[in-house]
Amino acid sequence: MDNTLDPDFLSGLTFEPLNRKNWNKFLELFGKNGAGANCWCMHFRLNKSDHEKGKSNNGNRDAMQQLVWQGRPTGLIAFYDDVPIAWCAFSPRKDFIRLEKSRVHKPIDEKKVWSVPCNFVAKEFRKKGVSVALLKGLIEYAKNQGIEIIEGYPTIPTQKKLPDGFAWIGLYKSFQNAGFKIVDRTSKHRPMVRYETEGN
């Protein structure tokens, strides 16, 4: 993809929930390495041993495909001119096993919450505002689906330059710029943030 992007390209992005029809676009975006270490965005959906096991023989990829074929919500793909350029996981919080077991990000109330625990932006589109645009697209999608609370768990970097491999949970600045607010600071550098679609 040419790096000389139209400065207004963000306004032309479109967003689609992952489904059977665009499954091959998801594979195209994630590449042979499953977006990194053969994760295939299953890190939060499986316990540690199952996730590690799934890194071999396409286990994690097949597990994600099974969710999609079952019609389960898994996430949103961002497209630029029909090219998949970014992804964020998006499902009811209860679908993410590791969140449910987390001591740092325990549920703070009984409200029905959907979580966005990780994201991935194609290398050539990083540092161009795509993460914020993706979160804003996610907010609009959530509103259209009647989803009232979106919850994230981004990082506040402790160093000036954060390696790309550590940005998959999302940067707090991106969430902040998309309108999310901190609702819990149990972790100093991994706050819990929320966006409430009602009234916004």
Commentary on this structure:
- The structure is a single chain.
- This protein has 200 residues and is an alpha+beta fold.
- The chain has a single domain (9-196), classed as Gcn5-related N-acetyltransferase (GNAT) (Aminopeptidase, 3-Layer(aba) Sandwich).
- The chain contains six helices and nine strands.
- The protein has helices spanning 23-30, 48-53, 59-69, 97-101, 130-145, 172-177, and strands at 14-17, 75-80, 83-89, 91-92, 114-116, 119-121, 149-152, 181-184, 192-196.
- It has a five-stranded mixed β-sheet. A four-stranded antiparallel β-sheet has the order 1-2-3-6, sandwiched between helices.
- Strand 2 and strand 3 form a beta hairpin.
- It is globular.
Supply database-style keywords.
Aminopeptidase, five-stranded mixed sheet, four-stranded antiparallel sheet, 6 helices, 26% helix, globular
